Amino acid sequence: MFTKPMIAVGLFGLALSASQPAFAGTRVVGYADLDLSTKEGQSSLDSRLRIAAKQACEFDRKDLPQVEFESARQCYFKSLADARRAKNDLRPRTVMAK
User: Fold this and answer.
1) Distance CA 16, CA 7 (A)
2) Which residue of 37, 81, 84, 97 shows the fewest CB atoms closer than 10 Å?
3) How far is CA 12 from CA 32, 44, 57, 66, 98, in A?
4) Whole-model pTM?
5) How many CB atoms lie within 10 A of CB 68?
6) Is residue 24 domain-resident?
7) What is the distance between the alpha carbons of residues 60 and 72, in angstroms, rounded to a whole number?
8) Residue-number span of the structural domain to which 84 is assigned
9) Which residues, at least 6 apart from 4, have a Cβ–Cβ distance to it below 8 Å?
């Protein structure tokens, strides 16, 4: 049985502090198609992590009220930092084509 490698991006913990938005969520980022031993693979994964963090924190919303902007921004940077730490724990591997 083959399972696709993924990284969960979002806010984890027992409780969210008041500075973190109630709308924060979790996104799963797949990377089975990437060769993480190359700069291109690492760059592609980092791009996917940025997009997922924006979505999880709704920082990509065009209609984000000004009052929620700072909270969403903090959520985005924390989520991205958490995801990058998880990415750094991955061992680079080459994707084998079938």
Assistant:
1) 20
2) 97
3) 23, 24, 12, 25, 36
4) 0.70
5) 17
6) yes
7) 9
8) 6-88
9) 30, 32
**Is there a domain that residue 96 lies in?**
no
**Does 44 fall in a domain?**
yes
**Which pLDDT belongs to residue 44?**
93
- Amino acid (one-letter) located at 55: Q
Number of domains into which the chain is organized = 1
Asked whether residue 83 is domain-assigned, the answer is: yes
State yes or no: pLDDT of 2 exceeds 70. Answer: no
Burial 57-67 (b: 16+ CB within 10 A, else e): bbbeeeebeee
Q: How far apart are CA 27 and CA 58, in angstroms?
A: 11
pLDDT at 93: 54
